[in-house]
Task: inverse folding
């Protein structure tokens, strides 16, 4: 046998989409089939490496689960009976359905986009349809941490920012299994470990990253907020606080009015010009906060003062300090979290000492917005990353806030060795977009476009989308009184809300890239009921469901009309700075995808959603898709990417704009822009000069540049919200003291909720489930991301599914002993809303109050191109069946989520686990649909991939 | 010269990238395809050159976890070679890579019986024995840029836990690493003398000089006083 | 280990073939020294044909174990290192020489030639069986096999099968000798019984390696497999481990003792004591021994635990053993 020989005749650069991490890839092709996918060495996100998923892209491209043609439902919904139709017919049907709905009122169209990487464009498209009802997936994903971050420091994690792995000496990973920084983390963690840094994992489970952790903090689920308050207690106690940072960059010293049961209570004390005040200890006078640096004030952090007007005022920090001292001593926290008080004290001392007494000093000069020149850049080599372990609880927003406050107290925001933003972040918090407000759902008439952004960051109750009676305007109840700061919308509520016609029935539900019938919904039996329920006349309560998907997923099986999408190797696409770009901490990055393999050649009659959107826009005669003369504006999505502009000079891609590609960021469209991206290996990377890389909250040179390219609106210090005043305004509303125009309905439970949880300073409270489930359901049940699978996508992937065709319920042996459960027993996991039968796997890697499993391994029989007997449907199980979708508060059934953002609190779920009577090795419940014909045909006994 | 992999258990997070990338490379390359049986059915079963296993050590809460990527260790006294009746299984003089020549293999499986590590997998479709080739079809491929002439698994490892080189050359990175980090081998007493080495876990621990922390913060005491907390 | 029927088949067929020839030719040899032990020509011819047919069937059967039968000839290439290679060579030459011997006997060649071929056949037969035994005995990674008992039992098995087979012939064609063969049968059965007993007893005494040794990691605490990297089986979990077999073993082993040893031994002694050296005894004795041996060989495979199973957590649990040099994970202490 001879060895060697070329493995490709063609090579192309693109961006991976086996998950949303946005790594750069080199794709090798032989005989028009992909032979090998490698990481792009020069791409800042992954620097040449690929994860398990990225390395298995080939088996996604050629998966039998792929849709071949548009599908029209012929059997009852959920039967899986479809007929393949031509694109022309499919587009006509869609256009007519949408048109009808728009005539009845644009809001009757709900467009929700899950794993969406073109959110800006999809939002913009929905605006053209005139509907208020668009959102991407943040509501069930990460909004707690995103919102907590944006509201607190004008930035957050993932595409917003990450640890400075190059310089950090202490990295704490909190509630993370894998997250979207999949490759960056692995690269970063090994880098900091090799330099001798300490890596700490805060997680009820030790697995994955836990294997290489120097310390495992086995925390009890739902108690992170308390843990971090405890750390801050110790930091304060031993004066391990970065006062300088708090003074200059945060509102911690700002004075808060203490005037109970008055409309001013809890608001900042401001002067006649509306400038927040501090108490200057030097002069013993009240001075405007914005003079702290210029006048070298010495603001008080502790104390209570009386103002000339006779207000009692306290620095925000003083209020917080009282809370820390009263309620969060290590001993008190230990009781809540199950973490030893000594460890809490030790960990706090470790991070405090490293941050304050062992700075990283970089020989980089920089100038701040006040004009001060700094000889060098001082770093604080302690960093954190948190994700859904903290966020996916009903106390997720406040718990996340505790971490951002901790970051402020240590002064590690946008400093070397700490947390670094990724341009276009950070942003001035006050300049963050707000959702465009309408007062009645049918305010936008047929033919009108929705005038402003769908999503944003409300600052006062008057920014809510509620009608005069305080009822939600959006179908997903985002920005309603129940979920006022739903910065990403509440995709998780759409199906139940549409089913309950609350606040109103809808006509067309459009789902793009979300498996809402399965792994991204909660209480699946209920969701399937909602999708199939009919009225007396026998019409579906959710009349029309259009899904844009690439595979035969559960969602597809429950749809009426399906557009088969092209894969990431088959379509033009932009990873845009307007969206969540693959930016690096030292500069903005955006990137493209482009057709590398021709789907037609492999028998797939599919179209990229972008092309379909452009086509629909034209057929619906949406003004934005037409020239003045009514002729078609965009040929296809490629043309759209080049010529579409959200503002003059700003389009989907920032690189090589201007007639000949001589301008970056701002400039008129460049007809050859995409070719220039291809020449540059598929991405655009603008590396900032060293003096613009740190302290960007107040970095003059950076801000001047950033405002120049439109990332920010002004050159001015970004003051972090140690004290989040907007929350207090909602609290006042709850108390009936809000003087604005929006008043909450007179529902004591709702008002109680606003008063209790909308605390402008973070605190810990037990997850809601503790109250309703409490002792009867003693264990927390949650999931983890398997590093080798992306949600529901990869059971179709021959290579990846071999790693896990089924999942187990992991449990601590001690817990099992108490419950009389043995290794590999089949058990019933029961929550207050449902049951699921599964097999137990005992392991010491799991904290005794927790049981967990890998996410989204279980599948509906007949889906995903798998034979009905596949283990995914019979041994694999879905925990979602037992996750409550709502909670009874008083008389009202409220969607289950964080009271502030609406974030679906997956990991609140509490269960009891007991040995199943029936030990037959099969999961329960099981669901089944018919596989598509062409899928059956492609079932081979043996796969030998060698093009 | 003995080429080999050195795997750092102090950074390996068990992500399976090396396993799937190995499969991806090798199924289309010289020693492919790597068959997958019943790919979409009940019990998919494929041929892999590299598999990742995870082990736990000790009782909660003192649990340690580690991941073990396991591919052919290219043993220097490879027991799988002499037992092969046809010579299909052989160890290359020039670089110590242990290979199977598919054309000579009669599929008697004896070599796999003689591997204490379970690193050989029989391909029922080709009826020949398969195993890690150390990507011999990459490392000598002149058409690849020099920095790409490395095993696929090494290039892709996101945790940079995999290193490739000549463990007999004292100047090589791998040699140095084995010495410095006291690298070890699997089943050291099986007389196989594996070429692949593993680097053990080492925990970083922090010692603080407590004197910075002696005094409690006066502000803290003031707050306690004002709110009558504690004594 | 997963029991491959093709190999078990070869064990038995080769066993009877070589065992039978061994005795028949031995009688021929004795007759050289003036003892009239030689069997009647007809009986010898029957035995030779039987041996030939059996070794042929054995070889054919064994070839089913191979992925590529047509390349089987290549198996001779590694004679100097591979016991399998040697087995192939010796069993091949054995068969070939046996054939020549049969011819020379049939065509009444000179005694010298006959016995030259006879001796060579005999030696090759034994070398072949020794090689077969060594394939298993020399495998360090299946401790149950890795013992001289494997060889002893196996060589004895040939005689244990050969004796009653020859016995059948003698009772029919040469009753005067049948007594001796009842005696020999009894002898080798008892030997076999003891070898097998020791083989089983040894299994309790041999030190099984542990996961700690397999991983050789600096941890002196128990280790458990929590993920094998695949939720379905693969070659390594099916070839080296046979769940169903393990479950049946507790019944299969005693059963194989009863069929292979107890019943035949009882019958043999009964026949000897009551000195009824008749076909109705020796035939069933042969039948049971052969049938039993099939089962015994099946157990032999299933009893074997390959050390690679440690990595998959499917090796017999042994607790864990401390090995010298084991310590807790190293700590690098950073001072601040
Ligand atoms: N391979 C892969 N990567 C992915 C994904 C995927 O499906 N596969 N999904 C992507 C998506 S959409 C997202 S949102 C991210 C999510 O990334 P992660 O945040 O890593 O999401 P999870 O896997 O849910 O991890 C939650 C972790 O929190 C722990 N945990 C549970 N409850 C608590 C708690 O109360 N406190 C603490 N401290 N920890 C807790 C769990 O043990 C688990 O390790 O991952 C992204 N990356
Ligand atoms: N129990 C539990 N449930 C969870 C979570 C959890 O931690 N625990 N995590 C939640 C989180 S954070 C998230 S983000 C959601 C994710 O869940 P979803 O948003 O539902 O995302 P996926 O399951 O990844 O896939 C959605 C759909 O995308 C389709 N798809 C794949 N590739 C393409 C393509 O190229 N084009 C198109 N048009 N479609 C494609 C798939 O076929 C699938 O139907 O799950 C949520 N659900
Ligand atoms: S992390 Fe993996 S799957 Fe996600 S984009 Fe990067 S390579 Fe692709
Ligand atoms: S790719 Fe690297 S980190 Fe991932 S399993 Fe393999 S060796 Fe470990
Ligand atoms: S690991 Fe196994 S297959 Fe590889 S050389 Fe060593 S014994 Fe042979
Ligand atoms: S299976 Fe092939 S390589 Fe292995 S011993 Fe037999 S002939 Fe040699
Ligand atoms: S060296 Fe090559 S063949 Fe061996 S495991 Fe790595 S990728 Fe696979
Ligand atoms: Mo997510």
Result:
């Amino acid at each position: 046998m001879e060895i060697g020989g070329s493995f490709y005749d063609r090579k192309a650069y693109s961006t991976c989409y086996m998950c949303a991490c946005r790594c750069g890839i080199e794709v090798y092709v032989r005989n028009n089939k992909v032979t090998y996918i490698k990481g792009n060495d020069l791409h800042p996100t992954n620097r040449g490496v690929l994860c398990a998923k990225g390395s298995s892209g080939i088996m996604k491209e050629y998966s039998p689960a792929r849709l071949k043609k548009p599908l029209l439902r012929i059997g009852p919904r959920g039967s899986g009976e479809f007929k393949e139709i031509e694109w022309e017919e499919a587009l006509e049907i869609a256009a007519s359905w949408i048109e009808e709905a728009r005539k009845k009122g644009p809001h009757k169209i709900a467009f929700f986009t899950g794993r969406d990487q073109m959110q800006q464009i999809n939002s913009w498209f929905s605006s053209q349809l005139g509907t208020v009802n668009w959102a991407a997936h943040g509501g069930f994903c990460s909004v707690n941490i995103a919102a907590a971050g944006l509201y607190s420091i004008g930035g957050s994690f993932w595409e917003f920012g990450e640890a400075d792995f190059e310089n950090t000496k202490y990295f704490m990973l909190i509630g993370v299994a894998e997250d979207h920084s999949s490759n960056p983390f692995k690269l970063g963690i090994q880098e900091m470990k090799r330099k001798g840094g300490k890596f700490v994992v805060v997680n009820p489970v030790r697995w994955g990253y836990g294997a290489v952790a120097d310390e495992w903090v086995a925390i009890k689920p739902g108690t992170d907020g308390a843990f971090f308050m405890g750390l801050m207690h110790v930091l304060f106690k031993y004066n391990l606080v970065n006062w300088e940072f708090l003074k200059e960059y945060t509102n911690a010293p700002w004075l808060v009015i203490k005037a109970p049961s008055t409309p001013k209570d809890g608001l900042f004390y401001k002067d006649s010009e509306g400038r927040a005040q501090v108490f200057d200890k030097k002069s013993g006078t009240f001075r405007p906060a914005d003079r702290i640096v210029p006048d070298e004030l010495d603001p008080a952090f502790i104390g209570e003062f009386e103002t000339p007007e006779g207000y009692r005022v306290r620095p925000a920090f003083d209020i917080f300090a009282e809370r820390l001292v009263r309620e969060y001593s290590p001993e008190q926290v230990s009781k809540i979290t199950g973490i030893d008080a000594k460890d809490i004290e030790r960990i706090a001392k470790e991070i405090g000492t490293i941050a304050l007494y062992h700075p990283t000093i970089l020989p980089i000069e920089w100038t701040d917005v006040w004009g001060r020149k700094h000889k060098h850049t001082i770093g604080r080599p302690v960093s954190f990353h948190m994700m859904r372990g903290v966020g996916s609880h009903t106390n997720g927003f406040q718990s996340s806030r505790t971490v951002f406050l901790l970051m402020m107290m240590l002064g590690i925001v946008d400093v070397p060795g700490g947390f670094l933003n990724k341009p276009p972040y950070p942003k001035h918090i006050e300049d963050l977009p707000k959702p465009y407000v309408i007062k009645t759902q049918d305010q936008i008439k047929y033919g009108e476009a929705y005038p402003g952004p769908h999503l944003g960051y409300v600052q006062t109750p008057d920014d809510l989308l509620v009608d005069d009676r305080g009822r939600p305007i959006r179908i997903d109840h985002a920005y309603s009184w129940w979920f006022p700061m739903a910065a990403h919308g509440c995709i998780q509520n759409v199906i139940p809300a549409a089913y309950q016609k609350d606040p109103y029935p809808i006509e067309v539900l459009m789902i793009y890239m979300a498996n809402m019938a399965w792994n991204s919904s909660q209480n699946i039996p209920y969701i399937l009921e909602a999708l199939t329920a009919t009225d007396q006349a026998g019409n579906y309560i959710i009349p029309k469901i259009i899904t844009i998907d690439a595979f035969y997923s559960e969602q597809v099986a429950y749809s009426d009309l399906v557009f088969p999408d092209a894969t990431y190797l088959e379509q033009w696409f932009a990873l845009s700075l307007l969206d969540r770009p693959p930016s690096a901490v030292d500069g903005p990055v955006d990137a493209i995808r482009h057709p590398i393999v021709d789907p037609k050649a492999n028998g797939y009659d599919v179209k990229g959603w972008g092309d379909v959107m452009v086509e629909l826009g034209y057929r619906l005669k949406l003004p934005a898709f037409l020239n003045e003369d009514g002729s078609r504006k965009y040929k296809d999505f490629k043309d759209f990417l080049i010529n579409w502009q959200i503002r003059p000079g700003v389009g989907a891609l920032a690189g090589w704009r201007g007639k000949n590609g001589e301008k970056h960021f701002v400039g008129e469209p460049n007809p050859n822009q995409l070719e220039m991206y291809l020449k540059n290996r598929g991405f655009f990377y603008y590396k900032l000069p060293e003096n613009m890389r740190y302290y960007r909250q107040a970095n003059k040179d950076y801000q001047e540049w950033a405002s120049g390219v439109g990332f920010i609106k002004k050159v001015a210090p970004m003051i972090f919200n140690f004290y989040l005043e907007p929350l207090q305004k909602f609290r006042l509303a709850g108390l009936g003291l809000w003087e604005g125009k929006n008043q909450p309905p007179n529902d004591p439970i709702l008002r109680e909720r606003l008063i209790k949880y909308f605390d402008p300073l973070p605190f810990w409270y037990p997850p809601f489930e503790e109250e309703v489930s409490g002792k009867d359901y003693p264990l927390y049940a949650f999931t983890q991301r398997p590093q080798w699978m992306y949600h529901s996508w990869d059971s179709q992937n021959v290579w990846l599914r071999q790693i896990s065709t089924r999942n187990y319920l992991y449990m601590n042996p001690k817990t099992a002993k108490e419950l009389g459960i043995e290794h590999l027993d089949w058990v019933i996991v029961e929550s207050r809303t449902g049951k699921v039968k599964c097999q137990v796997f005992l392991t010491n890697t799991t904290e005794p109050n927790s049981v967990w499993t890998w996410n989204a391994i279980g599948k509906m029989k007949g889906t995903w191109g798998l034979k009905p007997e596949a283990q995914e449907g019979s041994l694999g199980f879905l925990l979602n069946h037992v996750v409550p979708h709502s909670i009874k508060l008083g008389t009202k059934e409220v969607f289950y989520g964080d009271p502030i953002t609406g974030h679906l609190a997956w990991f609140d779920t509490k269960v009891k686990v007991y040995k199943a009577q029936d030990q037959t090795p099969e999961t329960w419940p099981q669901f089944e649909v018919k596989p598509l014909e062409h899928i059956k045909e492609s079932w081979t006994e043996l796969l030998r991939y060698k093009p | 010269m003995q080429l080999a992999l050195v795997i750092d258990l102090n950074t390996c997070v068990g992500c399976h990238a090396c396993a799937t990338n190995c499969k991806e490379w090798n199924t289309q390359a010289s020693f492919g395809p790597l068959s997958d049986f019943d790919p979409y059915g009940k019990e998919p079963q494929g041929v892999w050159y590299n598999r990742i296993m995870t082990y736990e050590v000790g009782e909660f809460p003192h649990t340690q976890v580690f991941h073990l990527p396991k591919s052919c260790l290219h043993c220097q006294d490879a027991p799988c070679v002499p037992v092969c009746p046809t010579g299909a299984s052989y160890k290359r003089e020039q670089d110590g890579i242990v290979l199977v020549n598919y054309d000579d293999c009669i599929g008697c499986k004896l070599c796999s019986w003689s591997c204490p590590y379970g690193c050989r997998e029989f391909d029922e479709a080709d009826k020949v024995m398969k195993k890690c080739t150390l990507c011999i079809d990459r490392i000598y491929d002149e058409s690849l840029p020099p920095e790409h002439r490395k095993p696929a698994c090494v290039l892709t490892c996101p945790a940079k836990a995999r290193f490739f080189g000549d463990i007999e050359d004292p100047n090589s990175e791998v040699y140095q690493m084995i010495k410095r980090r006291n690298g070890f081998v699997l089943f050291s007493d099986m007389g196989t003398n594996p070429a692949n080495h593993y680097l053990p876990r080492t925990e970083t621990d922090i010692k603080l000089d407590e004197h910075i922390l002696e005094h409690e913060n006066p502000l803290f005491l003031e707050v306690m006083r004002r709110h009558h907390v504690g004594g | 280990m997963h029991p491959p029927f093709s190999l078990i088949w070869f064990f038995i067929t080769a066993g009877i073939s070589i065992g039978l020839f061994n005795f028949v030719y031995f009688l021929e040899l004795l007759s050289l020294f003036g003892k009239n032990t030689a069997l009647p020509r007809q009986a010898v011819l029957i035995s030779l044909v039987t041996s030939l047919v059996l070794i042929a069937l054995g070889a054919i059967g064994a070839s089913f174990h191979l992925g590529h039968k047509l390349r089987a000839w290549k198996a001779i290439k590694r004679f100097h290192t591979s016991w399998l290679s040697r087995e192939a060579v010796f069993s091949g030459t054995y068969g070939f020489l046996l054939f020549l011997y049969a011819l020379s006997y049939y065509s009444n060649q000179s005694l010298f030639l006959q016995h030259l071929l006879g001796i060579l056949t005999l030696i090759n037969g034994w070398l072949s069986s020794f090689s077969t035994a060594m394939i298993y005995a020399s495998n360090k990674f299946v401790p149950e096999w890795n013992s001289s008992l494997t060889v002893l039992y196996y060589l004895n098995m040939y005689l244990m099968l050969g004796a009653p087979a020859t016995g059948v012939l003698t009772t029919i064609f040469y009753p005067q000798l049948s007594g001796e063969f009842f005696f020999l049968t009894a002898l080798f059965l008892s030997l076999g019984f003891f070898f097998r007993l020791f083989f089983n007893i040894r299994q309790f005494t041999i030190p099984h390696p542990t996961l700690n040794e397999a991983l050789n990691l600096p941890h002196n605490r128990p280790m458990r497999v929590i993920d094998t990297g695949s939720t379905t089986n693969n070659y390594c979990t099916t070839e080296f481990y046979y769940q169903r077999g393990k479950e049946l073993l507790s019944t299969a082993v005693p059963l194989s003792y009863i069929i292979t040893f107890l019943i035949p031994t009882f019958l043999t002694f009964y026949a000897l004591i009551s000195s009824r050296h008749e076909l109705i005894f020796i035939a069933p004795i042969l039948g049971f021994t052969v049938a039993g041996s099939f089962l015994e060989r099946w157990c032999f495979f299933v009893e074997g635990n390959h050390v690679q199973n440690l990595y998959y957590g499917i090796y017999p649990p042994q607790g864990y053993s401390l090995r010298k040099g084991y310590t807790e994970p190293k700590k690098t202490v950073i001072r601040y």
